[in-house]
Every structure is written in C-alpha cells, then in structure tokens.
Write a structure and sequence with these properties.
Chain lengths: ~425, ~550
C-alpha cells in the first residue's frame, strides 16, 4: 500500500473521533510539508516545488491555528485578512486536500446524513461534512462572496450558524455600474469594521495599499507568463492547476505569491519547447479522476495549458482607492455576470495560448459552469478547436464513471 | 403577455405598461427540448421553465439574477425569444441595495418601453400599487407551513384541500403583493425598497430564522435536485425545530406526484391535521385491505381487536380485482359474510381504487398502527416490500412521528433481489438462506439495480463464490435500509415488515448493521392490513 493510502486508512478508522482525525490531518500536512522540502521532486521546476510547499503550509497553518484563521471562498477579498495577518482557508483547497487523503466519502456522507442535498457541489459537501463531524475547528471568522456560485452563501451561513462564528457576506452584483461599485465598496468598508472588532486589530490603509501593489505586480507577471504558455510544455500535473488557485486568488497580494510568479516566469522561460498536445480546461481539471491522471500527469504527450478560473481578472486594481478597486475586481471577474463574459475571456486566453483542444469537466452540481456548456462548445466550434465535455466530480471519486469517460477522453485525445 | 418567475419581479411595472404578467410554471412531462439546450444536471425547475417557454412560444420573459440556473437560462434565452431581460437583484436589504434595484427597475422600464414603443406612466404604477395595498392583508391561521422550493399550483391546492388547518406558503409563490409605499416623491425608489422588503427567500442574505409563526403543527419542506438553496435550511430545521417536518422532493413532472401526495396525507394524519369525515365506531367485525404493488393482503378483526383471519395473494394486473379476491378469501377464512363486516379500510398504493372500502388511509399510518399493536416496544419499523421501502418512526404512544421512503426506484427492494437472483440463476428462496459469507467479504458498490446487475455479472465472470455474491447483495439491501433508518434517526426496538422480512439473509445483515435484533411478526406482510383493520374499528386514523 502506498503511504498516503496507508495514512488515509488510519484516519478512516478514527473517523468518529474528530479530535484525533483533526490532529492526524494537521500532522499529515506537516509531514508532507517536510517531505516536499527535503526530498525535492526532480521532475518539478523550482517554482512549482516552492508552490507545493507553500500550499501545504498554508492549509496546515490555518488548520493548526483556528483562532487566527478565517474560512473563505475563492473569490473572497482576502486582501483584508492578509493585511491583518489572518490565515485564510478556502473551501476548494480544503476539500481537495481531503480528497487527497481519500476521506472525502466519509465527510460527504456525514453532510448528506444531516439533510444536505446530495446534488450539492462536493467541494461544499466535503467542507460541511468536516464541520459536522467536528474535524474542522471553529474559525474566528467567515467571509464569502456571492460569486461564483449559489452554494457559497448558504454553505457559509450554515457553518457560521453551526459554529457560532461571525460571517460577512459580500453580495456582488451581476452587472457593472457605478452604483454597483459603491454598493460593494460599502460592504468592504463594513467588512473591515467587523474584522477590527473580531480580531481586535486595525488593518492599516498603507499596508492594504502595499498588498494591492504587490497584487498588481503579481498580475503583471501572470500576464507575462501567459505569453509563454503556448510555446512551452510546463504544468506537469493537474494538482498544480488547483494550487494555482492559491496564487491567483486567495493568497495573491502576499510576498510569497509574488516570489512564486517571479520564479515561475524564470522557469517557463527555460522550459523545453512545447512537445505533444496541450489542452485548455474550462473551470478546473479533475485532479483525482483516474483517466485524467493517467493521461495528463507527467505526460510527454498531453499537457495542461491553463484553466480559465486562474485568469478571471487581469486588470489593475486602483492602489489609491483599494476599496473601490477591489470592489471593481469582484464585479468584473469573468466568473461573475453572464456566460458571454466568461466566453470572451476564454476566447482571449485561447487565442493567446493556442491549445490543441478544450475540455470542460462538468463537475457535478456546478451549475454556473455546466449551464454554459453549450455556449462554450459553440465558441470552440467557431474557433475551430476540438471540444469535449465530460460529466464527473472533482472531489467525490465515487461519482466518476471511469469506464465510460475513458473511451470518450481517449477518442478526443486521438482527435487532436 | 410577459412571463416571469420571481416574486421580486416588478410585476406592477409590467401591469402599468398595460401588459399581462404571467408567472411561468414548469411545463411538460419530460425535458426533451430543454435538454437539447441545457445540460441535464441543471435544476428541473429551470429546465421546466425553458420547456414551457419553448413549447408555448413565450415571446417575452423577464427574470432576476436569482441563481446560477436562472442566470444561465437568461444566457440561453437571449437572442432566442423576442424580449429577454434580467434584473440584477441585490441580496441585501439596505439603502444602497434599494438604490441599485431602483436603477435596475428604471433600466428595465426604458428598455421595455423602447421594445414596445410605448411610454411609461408612473401615475398608472402608483394607482396599481394603491389598489393592491387597499385590498389589505389576508392572513390565515397557520397549521402547516410550506417551505423550500416552490410547488406547482396544483400541488399547493391539493395540500390545502387535505389539511384541516390553514396552510401558509413560504415558498417563492406565497406572498401577497400589498406594498405600502411611504415615500411617494421617488416612487420607483420606494417600490424597489418595498420589493426588497418582502419576506426574504432563501437566496437572500437576510436571516430567515424568525420566519415561522408559533403554534405551527408541521412543515412540508420541498426540495429539488441540483438546487443549492434549500437543503441547508431543511437540515437546520430538522436539527433544531421541534415541529414535525416532512421533506419531499419534486422534479415538476407529474411522475412522482401520486407518491408525494401519499406522503403528504400520511404526514397530515400523523400530525393530526388531516381532514377526515368521522365514521362512528360500530360493533361487529372490521376489515383492512392493503393493496400493495406485489401483494394484496387482508385482515379481519373483531371488536375486541382479536385477529380473526387473514389472507395474502400476489397483486394481479388490476389492483381492484386482487382486492376483491383477497377480501372474499379472508371472509371465507373467517367464516363470515360481507354483511358481517361493519367497516373496511383500504391502504397501500392501490387504496384509492377499492370501491367497497369505507375509508382510505396511507400505508405509513397503517403500518405504524399495526406494528405498534403487535408489539408496543417497537419505535422503528423497517418495511421492505416488492417495489418500495420505508422506515417509520413511532413515539411512545405509537403515533407516527417521522418516516422516510425510498424514492421512485427499486434499489434495495424485493425487486432488486429478484433481478439479482435471476442474474445469478439462483431461486430467490435459496438466496434468502445465505446469512454469512463463504470465502471472502465482497461489497457491491452500486445501489442502482442496473449498475449492480452488471457488477454481479462481472463477479460471476471472476468466478466468485455465489454465496459471497449473495451475501454482498444482502448487505447492499441492508445498507440502503439502514441509510433510510438514519434519515429518521436510530431508535430501538426495530420491527421489520414487508415481504423481504422473510429473507433471513437480509434480516441478519440489517441486524449486524444496527447492532440490534429485529422483531419479525408472525406474518410480516399483513402488518399494513392489520393497521387498516384497527383503524376501521376505531373509526379514525389518529
Ligand atoms: S465547483 Fe462550481 S459549484 Fe462548486 S464551489 Fe466551485 S463554482 Fe461553486
Ligand atoms: S428564490 Fe428568491 S430570487 Fe429566486 S425566484 Fe424565488 S423569490 Fe426570486
Ligand atoms: S429551483 Fe433552485 S436552482 Fe432551480 S431555478 Fe429555483 S432557485 Fe434556481
């Protein structure tokens, strides 16, 4: 048995003892963190080794210090938390890690047994299940935005209620207008007031400006990186596409992420020229799906170009007015608003990267993405790029019809 | 005519344009046309609305940014119907949100005005609002609250008709539009504010915890697959509220409505708010007939609740004929004539088609009644029949307080075992004898009959011991049953009824999962009919 599976079996055996499971998870992450820093995976460029360690550490830290952590969704304005030194933990990261530990099934079952819908997105069900079982400890604070999906507000409200921890909901309007920016800006100002009360610390406006400046610099590097993506073979495993969420969203604005993008840019410049075929993913690739793992991880023939979720906003934030600027970022994300916004961002990216094919993995329960499947399909057809959509689940491995998906995936890859 | 779905839609603005706003309901028995445009895993409400729009050529539609499904519906309708509009609806209720929504309504007015080549008359809007306000509030005393996802008009009416107390509707369709707008200087602003002040729906950021009136007798909670809004509130209510809750799930096609109504009726019966015509208790003999999908059973008792006779026959193609036949047979067994029977109660899914019954009562209530009569220590009944399974929870006095039913599929029922027996080439009676594994512990992962069958076939191909496969199947049925038990919560002692209770393999597997012995009545198939007979004697279901 491989060590992860072995470790997972120990956790599973204790699943009814939350204290123990919680300790095992934190310890497991500490070991993993140590492991990746001691035994560097030679197949990985330095930047990705760095990212690997950073992601594991950030999840570990927020779990180990719940009194100084806040639960957030990907699109939450974490700049304010970073300014206060509060450690964010986001739904998608936690649930992906639990799927990595092979315990998502127990957590999902626990959520469903309480009455949570079985058709809810499994990123959310896993998170809720961990809350129900007491494996997640009470955080100090919760923040969620209404983007990108319906699940956010109810999940966070439910957990805030369950743990008795304060929640701040940021309602992001669907359309952009001056009034909409003011509406969000006001909510951000209120958020800071509440944060101040809860953490008894005052975020400093200069600090916030500095974070926004770092964020802008990071995005500039991100855009430069995109110039190389089409010519190089780079992202070696699907896990890194998920890790990119840490860098493109929740932790953007930190020095570590800036550092990462600097390394990334250096690495991609030195990376080998593009070999084989590249695939662009709508939303995210399924990290744990067997066929995808086999075809994409450390593959010479097929590699991952990018996923649109990591590039939903590429503009600059106004440093002088960070509140208004962040409000604009939230409203203008390509994951907010109509599907045409999303489609035009995908078009831009595809034109730049020139992938050989586009795959949309329709994660069960993710209506904001699967509702646009046929729009993206038409877009691909119009651009003359092969498109495949497959149904499955990025977290709950039980929902993947691997046999059926295999034929379709293989036939698609043969087409490229 | 302009179609809309959301209660926050500025309906009165449409009226002021001289147009007729029509609330769209999902249409169609299937979502064939909708699924050509929409991924099938979108919620069935949105698919049903799309189907309706396509089928009836609805030309003008106004939506709000309610949820992901509706937003994507708008993406689809744009360019497909003559006029599609989406209003950006804030989730919060504060002055800035009102400003924002005011702007949205004003934008809608100018866009629609251009489309219709018509001017908007604010005076008209004001008049319409005044008229609605003058009508005043109509509040009924609440017995049952409808919550969760909206129900079709038809279903709401049926629920109202079977409930003796008032029904208060907290879904998207329940509210009166009697806005009282204070500030008339900026009418649209006041109107936008009043709309945002409607009882918050699940989609809003506001808390709904203090929504429920006191003295409520029960909650009917409707959920729908692939809608994220509702299950949370259900889970919270279930964990906190001391009011009985019935959870139902609709898909807006007609297919499941019969079963849902059965459950609603049973719920009303158990909470004591069912409308019933009282029948007087008489002396003599009393009969109960349970018209199930696989077997039809009858029981006769006397006025002192002594069991006089019973009979069981397989249900034929016509429920009514089987009912007649079993009734004749039980009369014969009892040595009685039709005229000796003072009252007959019918239960089971075929109950409504039995003309000689004096009353019909759901199988849930009857099972509860029968089981508690047989053994007063029973708190949970696990009933696995030919085509459905259910778990019923009783309180200390034998009243039904909760129940869960397997929805619309044969997973974990007698039918499931029959299909598997056929694949294995083993008679069902043989299967029933396997209570332990022979060589290895196999687990069947699919609960769906179709997938499980292919799993069995591949196990046969792998030359696995048949007894181990059978054992695995029994465990699969048991785990489905226990997951139903978990939905109502575990509480002993347990009685198992229904045809599958005769299958020792399944019985042992359930016992090992529950860690407790099951009580099996002398004939597990007649519990429902016995309950029906008892109700015939008592003259009421409560
Ligand atoms: S996968 Fe979709 S539904 Fe799930 S959290 Fe992400 S955006 Fe929401
Ligand atoms: S859930 Fe709320 S926003 Fe959505 S249709 Fe119903 S009332 Fe409107
Ligand atoms: S049922 Fe739920 S997902 Fe479907 S349209 Fe209504 S609110 Fe949206």
């Amino acid at each position: 048995m491989d060590p992860v599976r072995f470790y997972s079996s120990i956790i599973k055996r204790n699943i009814k003892r939350p204290e123990k499971v919680e300790k095992l998870i934190v310890r497991g992450l500490s070991i993993a963190q140590l492991y990746v820093s001691l035994f560097k995976d030679k197949r990985l460029p330095e930047s990705l080794q760095y990212l690997n360690a950073f992601c594991i550490k950030s999840v570990r830290d927020s779990l180990a210090e719940p009194q100084n952590s806040a639960w957030v969704n990907i699109f939450s304005p974490t700049e304010f938390l970073i300014a206060l030194g509060v450690k964010p933990l986001f739904t998608e990261a936690y649930s992906s890690f639990m799927s990595g530990f092979f315990i998502e099934d127990d957590l999902i079952d626990a959520a469903e047994a309480r009455g949570i819908s079985n058709t809810l997105c499994s990123y959310h069900k896993t998170f809720i299940g961990a809350g129900e079982l007491g494996i997640l400890k009470k955080p100090r604070f919760l923040i969620t935005t209404s983007t990108a999906c319906d699940a956010n507000i109810p999940t966070f409200r439910y957990l805030s209620n369950k743990f008795g921890a304060p929640l701040c909901i940021i309602d992001v309007p669907y359309k952009y207008s001056k009034e909409a920016v003011e509406y969000v800006k006001k909510q951000l100002l209120d958020l800071v007031k509440v944060l101040e009360e809860v953490f008894k610390r005052k975020p400093d406006i200069d600090k916030l400006r500095e974070i926004v400046r770092t964020e802008n610099r990071t995005r500039a590097l991100m855009k430069e990186y995109l110039n190389y993506v089409g010519q190089k073979s780079f992202i070696p495993t699907m896990t890194f596409e998920m890790y990119m969420l840490f860098a493109s969203h929740v932790f953007i604005g930190t020095g570590e992420v800036l550092n990462f993008y600097q390394k990334l840019l250096r690495d991609i410049r030195n990376a080998p020229e593009k070999r084989g075929k590249s695939v662009f993913f709508v939303h995210l690739p399924p990290l744990f799906e067997k066929n995808f793992k086999e075809y994409f991880n450390f593959s010479e023939k097929y590699h991952i170009a990018a996923s649109d979720i990591n590039y939903d906003f590429l503009e600059e934030i106004d440093e002088r007015d960070p509140f208004g600027g962040i409000a604009e970022k939230l409203i203008l994300s390509s994951f907010n608003g109509g599907i045409d916004r999303r489609a035009s961002r995908i078009r831009e990216l595809v034109e730049k990267i020139k992938p050989d094919g586009i795959i949309q993995f329709c994660h069960l329960g993710c209506k904001q993405t699967i509702g646009g499947t046929f729009v993206i399909k038409n877009l691909a057809a119009e651009m003359g790029i092969p498109f495949l959509y497959l149904d499955g689940d990025c977290v709950d491995k039980r929902n993947n019809q691997e046999g059926q998906n295999r034929t379709r995936l293989e036939a698609f890859l043969e087409m490229l | 005519m302009i179609g809309y779905v959301c209660k926050y839609t500025p309906v009165e603005v449409i009226e002021a344009f001289g147009e007729e706003p029509v609330r769209l309901d999902p249409a169609g028995k299937s979502y064939e046309s909708a699924e050509a445009l929409f991924h099938s895993n979108m919620c069935s409400f949105a698919k049903g609305i799309l189907e309706n729009i396509l089928e009836n050529n609805v030309e003008e539609v106004v939506l709000t940014s309610c949820c992901d499904s509706i937003k994507r519906l708008y993406d689809l309708l744009k360019g497909r119907v003559k006029f599609a509009y989406l209003l950006d609806l804030p989730r919060k209720e504060n002055p800035m949100a009102a400003d924002l929504y005011r702007r949205e309504i004003a934008d809608f007015i100018s866009t629609y005005g251009v489309f219709k080549k018509r001017d908007f008359d604010e005076g008209k809007l004001s008049k319409i609002l005044d008229e609605k306000c003058a009508k005043g509030k109509r509040r009924s005393s609440a017995g049952v609250a409808l919550m969760g996802a909206r129900l079709s008009k038809d279903m709401v009416e049926k629920i109202e008709n079977s409930c003796a107390a008032g029904v208060i509707n907290f879904t998207c369709t329940g509210e009166e539009r009697d806005f009282d707008i204070e500030v008339k200087s900026d009418l649209l602003r006041g109107y936008a504010k009043a709309l945002l002040e409607l009882t918050p729906c699940m989609r809003m950021a506001r808390n709904r915890e203090n929504l429920l009136p006191r003295n409520l007798k029960g909650i009917i909670y409707n959920t729908i697959k692939f809608c994220d809004f509702y299950s949370y509130e259900y889970a919270l209510l279930r964990a906190k509220a001391d009011i009985p809750i019935l959870k139902i799930e609709t898909d807006y096609t007609d297919s499941g409505s019969g079963q849902i109504l059965t459950r609603v009726d049973a719920f009303m019966e158990s909470t004591g708010i069912k409308k019933i015509e009282e029948t007087k208790t008489k002396k003599g003999y009393f009969a109960g007939i349970d018209s199930g999908s696989t077997s039809t059973n009858a029981v006769i008792i006397d006025e002192n609740k002594n069991l006089i006779a019973y009979a069981t026959i397989p249900t034929g193609p016509k429920a009514i004929e089987s009912a007649r036949e079993v009734f004749e047979r039980v009369l014969k067994n009892a040595g009685l004539k039709k005229e000796d029977i003072s009252a007959t109660v019918a239960t089971g899914y075929g109950r409504v088609s039995i003309p000689f019954a004096d009353m019909t009562v759901t199988e849930i209530t009857c099972h509860g009644k029968g089981a508690f009569f047989l053994d007063g220590t029973v708190r949970t009944i696990v009933d696995i029949g030919g085509q459905d399974s259910k778990v019923i929870r009783l309180d200390d006095s034998g009243n039904v307080v909760d129940f869960a039913m397997n929805d619309k599929c044969s997973a974990g029922t007698g039918r499931f075992l029959e299909v598997m027996a056929r694949s294995l080439g083993v008679p069902i009676d043989e299967m029933a004898k396997v209570t332990e594994k022979a060589k290895e512990d196999i687990t069947i992962t699919s609960m769906c009959t179709v997938f499980a069958e292919s799993e069995v076939i591949s196990l046969i191909a792998q030359n696995k011991d048949r007894r181990d496969i059978i054992h695995a199947l029994n465990k699969a049925v048991a785990s489905k049953a226990v997951s139903l038990v978990d939905r109502v919560g575990r509480k002993g002692r347990y009685m198992m009824t229904g045809g599958v209770a005769k299958n020792l393999g399944v019985v042992r597997a359930i016992e090992s999962k529950l860690g407790e012995k099951l009580i099996i009545p002398f004939d597990p198939q007649i519990t429902g009919a016995l309950g029906a007979a008892l109700i015939a004697l008592e003259g009421k279901s409560g």
